[in-house]
Amino acid sequence: MSHTVTVSLIVLIYTLFFPLVMELKLWLCFLLAQVTHGVQPPRGQWIAKIPTSIPALQGSCVVIPCIYTYPKPNSNAILNRWRGFWRKGNKIVSTNLPKWKMTNEYKKRTQFLGDLKLRNCTMLLDGVRNTDVGPFYFRIEIPQYKSFSYTKNPVSIDVTSDPQPPSLTLRVTDKVKAFCSVSHSCPSFPPKFSWSRSGTVTHRSKRLNEWKWETVSALTFKPLPADFKMPLNCTVQYRGGKQAMNSTRI
């Protein structure tokens, strides 16, 4: 078969089948569009993840963790402004707006800790009072989009008058290692510890759940004969000044 005939045959095949191939590709694209029509990425909802109740010591502080979500806007508008408000009824308790005039009841006692751009609406309430039981709820205002009050996701504060005694344990070898621990809801201002005996002291804090924290003070010392006759005391002072103590013997 000559070179001319071969080229002519290729041109003929291309002419006959190229339209069919293109039609098949278009049909497949159309079919794919029909199958995926209406299947969109799941949109968010107006939901706030907040504990329903948090215990807090009177006079101390409480950090209310908060994460909020909202439906994805239908438009392509760029959202770059967020206004957040914590409310108790009609009262505004806290906001991310620095120039907002707060009522005397909560002025200088609250701090908006969350970054609304990251959908974090966490709030700090300091100097907890018996009247701070709530319920509190969060409201978001997005000027380029919508506003919403998360009234179905409120939080209440269980205010306690007196702190519980700390937990106190010992580990005795050639040295004594004592551990004094408390749980609390005020990670911004953790409790302070003092011991009735000197030694090497270390502290650590860890999160137990979404609102509860544990702070531990560890005391290490080499015991003297007099130490076996004296009680070992651990005193904890909370934000606001209230104290609690526990005692043990070696």
What does this structure look like?
The chain is mostly beta strands. Helices cover 14% and strands 37% of the residues. It has one helix at residues 3-36; strands at residues 47-49, 53-57, 62-64, 67-69, 83-88, 91-95, 110-112, 123-125, 137-141, 147-149, 156-160, 167-172, 176-184, 192-195, 200-207, 213-221, 232-237, 243-248. A hairpin with a 3-residue loop joins strand 12 (167-172) and strand 13. The chain is elongated and about 75 Å long. Mean pLDDT is 84; it is low at 1-43.
- What are the low-pLDDT stretches, counting only 5+ consecutive residues below 50? 1-43
Arrangement of strands in the largest sheet: 6-5-9-10
Span from first to last CA? 106 Å
Assembly classification:
single chain
Strand residue percentage: 35-45%
Based on Cα principal axes, name the global outline.
elongated
**Structural class assignment:** mainly beta
Number of beta strands: 18
Spell the H/E element sequence.
Answer: HEEEEEEEEEEEEEEEEEE
Please work out how many helical segments DSSP would assign. 1
From the alpha carbons, calculate the radius of gyration and give it in angstroms: 32 Å
Helix content: 10-25%
How would you sum up the major sheet? 4 strands, antiparallel
Mean pLDDT: 84
What's the short version?
The protein has one helix and 18 strands. It has 250 residues and is mostly beta strands.
How are the elements arranged and paired?
Blueprint: H1 3-36, E1 47-49, E2 53-57, E3 62-64, E4 67-69, E5 83-88, E6 91-95, E7 110-112, E8 123-125, E9 137-141, E10 147-149, E11 156-160, E12 167-172, E13 176-184, E14 192-195, E15 200-207, E16 213-221, E17 232-237, E18 243-248
Parallel strand pairs: 2-11
Antiparallel strand pairs: 1-4, 3-8, 5-6, 5-9, 7-8, 9-10, 12-13, 13-16, 14-17, 15-16, 17-18
